[in-house]
Each structure stands twice: as structure tokens, then as C-alpha cells.
User: Which sequence fits this backbone?
């Protein structure tokens, strides 16, 4: 926080408009109906590994972990290639092109809801790692992100943005629908769900579990190297992971860092008790009957 906030006009020729695709809101900058159709038709290989999240749930953290596991903890790849090339985002045309040409086994990131995900995945042996995070922290993180990510509209006040978030009236749609949709894949051999909070609490143990899922055996030293190089401090220092190479018309880091705080529970510094209870009410309603327990659920 602490960055000066003021209206930043879009560069000439850029519109901050949104469009709808499959009932989901997307920004018109970087995203297009054609790109989303191409993502749906994306040819999947059995050795593909997909890093899937609702935005602001730890995508680039998981991407760093998976990049490091791929290299047995050797940080050279992470320090020489931007994360958007190591694990390109499937839902932009540029990312899709990068993903298509990536050396196998490919690492591919996506925020798509399950119903817009590549159809070919569902009859493949490709793996999905789905990272979830306390939605109150997602809200706060997204609120700050919307002020620096140029394709997104300015979020206005947190009060207003909270309502939009709860109603799913934000890019990539409702957090609740996204999580419910992806949780439908639980129990599949090629689906692994982990939370941001678990990564926070026990990064090494989480990396070990990821290695089992991926069928990778790492030495103790390699595990240590993954943990050390995927820390918030190490990633914040790494220009290939902190988005400082991202063009200004996409990400305006003058207004705040991408790697903002990297903690669990920052929502307590932002939501009033009333806003928090309002959130809890909607949460209970929207998550009823799912039958999954998350680290942030009350006991
Ligand atoms: P905050 O805004 O709460 O700091 P995504 O990659 O899905 O956009 O998520 C971004 C969030 O993950 C940001 O949260 C960011 O700080 C956090 N994050 C990224 N790398 C992290 C790390 N190594 N450790 C902890 N949090 C990390």
C-alpha cells in the first residue's frame, strides 16, 4: 500500500471496456472472444501441467514453485526467463501462442473457470494444480491489483468493490462459481487442490506433496532450494518474477507492487466487522452443500 492513487487515463486508443464470454466478464485489453475460443480448443498433451487459480490466489507463487521443481531447485531458469514465458497464461492470444510452442513438459497458467477450460483436458492425462485462497484476502489483493493492472477498471471504493466481488461482477466472474466449478474435479487422479494458506504454513511439505502428485523425486537439497527461491523475498527481488519487466500499458507498478504483501489475513486490515459479516453470510449461502473444508472456514 501507500502508493499514490489517482485516476490514470488509458493510453490513446486503449479502451477500458469489458466484454462477456460464456456469461463471464473479461477485459477488452489482452483478452478477446477469439482468444477464449482458441483456449477452449487448445490441443492438450498428456504431459502438460496446468497451474489454475481464481486470480490473486497465488498463481505466480505456484508458477515459481512448479518452475523450480521442474529444474530440481536450480534457480537459473527462474532468474533468466520471465514467469509469463515459463508458464504462459492460456486465455490471452499471446500466452496461448507461447504455450503452443513451449518445450514439453509444458507449464501453463490459467484463471479460466472450468466450463471455459480446454475441452481436450477432460479426456487427457494432463494435470491440473488448483490453488485456492481465502476469498477475503483474494478480494483485498484484487482490489489493489485492479488499481495497477491497466486492463481492469478502477475499483472505486472498497465498499463498492466488495459488492461487485460478492455478486461476481468482476473480471473472470464469481469466486464462488470458480471454486465450486473446479472442486467438481476433486477425486480425479490428475487434479490436485492446494491452498495459499497451506503454502504459507508449510511450504516445504507442500512442495513435497506437489512432487508426489507430479511424479518427481527431489533430493533434500533440491527441496531446500525450491523453498528458498520461491519465498516472497526471493521472488520480490527477481525481475523475472516481480513483473518489473512488464510494459507500463499493462501493469503500472508506479502505483504499487505486484508482489504486494504476501500474507494471509490482510483482509482484517481492510474490512470492517460489518463488511466481514456480510461477506460471511454470502459465503455460507454460496458455498452451502459443497462438502469441502477450507483452512479459513470457522471450526
Ligand atoms: P497480496 O496482494 O495479498 O500480497 P496471483 O499471482 O494469483 O495474482 O496472486 C498474487 C498474490 O500472491 C499477491 O497477494 C502476492 O503478494 C502473493 N504472492 C506471490 N508470491 C508470493 C510468495 N512467494 N509468498 C507469499 N505470497 C505471494
Assistant:
Amino acid at each position: 500500500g501507500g502508493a499514490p492513487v489517482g485516476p490514470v487515463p488509458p493510453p490513446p486508443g486503449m479502451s477500458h471496456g469489458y466484454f462477456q464470454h460464456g456469461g463471464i466478464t473479461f477485459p477488452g485489453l489482452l483478452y478477446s472472444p477469439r482468444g477464449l475460443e482458441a483456449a477452449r480448443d487448445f490441443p492438450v498433451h498428456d504431459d502438460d501441467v496446468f497451474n489454475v487459480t481464481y486470480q490473486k490466489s497465488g498463481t505466480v507463487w505456484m508458477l515459481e514453485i512448479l518452475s523450480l521443481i521442474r529444474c530440481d531447485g536450480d534457480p537459473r531458469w527462474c532468474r533468466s526467463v520471465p514467469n509469463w514465458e515459463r508458464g504462459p497464461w492460456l486465455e490471452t492470444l499471446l500466452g496461448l501462442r507461447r504455450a503452443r510452442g513451449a518445450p514439453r513438459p509444458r507449464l501453463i497458467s490459467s484463471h479460466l473457470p472450468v466450463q471455459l477450460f480446454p475441452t481436450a483436458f477432460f479426456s487427457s492425462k494432463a494435470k491440473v494444480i488448483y490453488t485456492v485462497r481465502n476469498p477475503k484476502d483474494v478480494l483485498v489483493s484484487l482490489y489493489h491489483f485492479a488499481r495497477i493492472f491497466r486492463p481492469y477498471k478502477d475499483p472505486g471504493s472498497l465498499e463498492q468493490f466488495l459488492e461487485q466481488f460478492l455478486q461476481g461482477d468482476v473480471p473472470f466472474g464469481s469466486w464462488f462459481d470458480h471454486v465450486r466449478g473446479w472442486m467438481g474435479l476433486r477425486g480425479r487422479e490428475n487434479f490436485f487442490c492446494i491452498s495459499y494458506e497451506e503454502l504459507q504454513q508449510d511450504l516445504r511439505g507442500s512442495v513435497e506433496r506437489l512432487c508426489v502428485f507430479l511424479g518427481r523425486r527431489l533430493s533434500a537439497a533440491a527441496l531446500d532450494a525450491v523453498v528458498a527461491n520461491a519465498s516472497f523475498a526471493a521472488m520480490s527481488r527477481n525481475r523475472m518474477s516481480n513483473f518489473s519487466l512488464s510494459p507500463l500499458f499493462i501493469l503500472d507498478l508506479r502505483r504499487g507492487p505486484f508482489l504486494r504483501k504476501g500474507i494471509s489475513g490482510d483482509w482484517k486490515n481492510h474490512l470492517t466487522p460489518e463488511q466481514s459479516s456480510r461477506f460471511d453470510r454470502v459465503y455460507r449461502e454460496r458455498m452451502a452443500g459443497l462438502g469441502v473444508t477450507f483452512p479459513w472456514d470457522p471450526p
Remarks:
- Strands lie at 18-21, 24-27, 49-53, 107-110, 127-132, 191-195.
